[in-house]
Amino acid sequence: MRASYRVNEDAPVLTLQMRVIAIVSEWLARPAEKVGVERAREALAKAAGSPAFIVGKVARLAQIRDDVISGVKVRRYVPHDAEPGVIVFFHGGGFVVGNYETHARPVSALAAATKREVIAVDYRLAPEHPYPAAVDDCVAVTSALSGRVVVAGDSAGGALATVVARRLGEKVAAQVLIYPVTDNVDELPSFETFARGHFLSRDTVRFYRQCYAPDVQRRHEPDCSPLRAGSLKGSAPAYVLLAECDVVHDEGLAYARKLERDGVAVKLVEVPGVLHGFFNMQGLPVATRATREMAAWIVSAFETNRRGQLSGA
């Protein structure tokens, strides 16, 4: 299962399409560290729904309904002819912005492509609820489900997925990490390379870190900075999807390499020429293709587990 590849070796550093998106987003949306948390949340909620040719549409499923698990709000995405197995999804947004509504398009697309129910977790956000509130919510929801599950998440949600996978061990059959944030202490080289003009900036990440973990010493804890965990031996197989032109690219890559060094099966996919957040752009072929390939890996992961062990909760 261990493998790595690039989707398009000949892609430019930043595709023209992504360059336009970066320029427009910088022009239209002021960064969170400038406008504050509430306005940043409002801006993301607005951007998540338009324009459709970029973000796509919510996939048609058998059922989309809200629920509560272990006191935490969740949204269930149930596809037609759903097969056994559940994916638990943790949204991105720097632990500060976003919810299951902002990620309805990629999550519904994942449910449709895998033919599995996806449970999106509306974990508590910082700064109102700093670390480890989000971790506690995600662990609580996942541990309450019957059988084994696949965990997935993008950006901050990818960090939460790594923590849940490590904390719950055999409970997690596979982990899907989409440009995960794995180090809230150091700044690896991609922080400088893509500091500005690439959708997510270095200053915004610094702002999110301060909101999420104001106690600097706690940022060294592995539940806050997964890259600082001890041995990951025995962790669930991992699918790691990276955006090449991304301020947090290098920490995602470092985590994939750490998993491999510790003997974990890893499939590493780096998409050249794209920005952080491209998974949410389900109207673009690059995102839909990445989702299909990810879904195929997830289906394979489900199929390698013994029948009846995966959750149907």
Automatic annotation (TrEMBL):
InterPro entries: AB_hydrolase_3, AB_hydrolase_fold, GDXG_lipolytic_enzyme, Lipase_GDXG_HIS_AS, Lipase_GDXG_put_SER_AS. The active site is at S155. Keywords: Hydrolase. Coiled coil: none annotated. GO terms for molecular function: hydrolase activity. Transmembrane segments: none annotated. SUPFAM superfamilies: alpha/beta-Hydrolases. Residues 87-279 form the Alpha/beta hydrolase fold-3 domain. Gene3D superfamilies: alpha/beta hydrolase (3.40.50.1820). Pfam families: Abhydrolase_3. Belongs to the 'GDXG' lipolytic enzyme family. This is Alpha/beta hydrolase. It comes from Archangium gephyra.
